[in-house]
Amino acid sequence: MIGDVGAQHLADALDGNTTLTKLDLGFNKIRDFGAQHLGDALQHNTTLTTLDLRTNQIGDVGAQHLADLLRHNTTLTTLNLRTNRIGDVGAQHLADALQHNTALTTLYLYDNQIECVGAKHLGNALRHNRTLTTLNIQDNKIGDLGVQHLGDALRHNTTLTTLDLSYNKIGDVGEQHLADALQHNTTLTALHMKEKGMANGYTRKIQEFVRRNQQRKKSWVLK
Question: How wide is the angle at C-alpha 183 spanned by C-alphas 193 and 166, nearest 5°?
Answer without folding.
Answer: 10
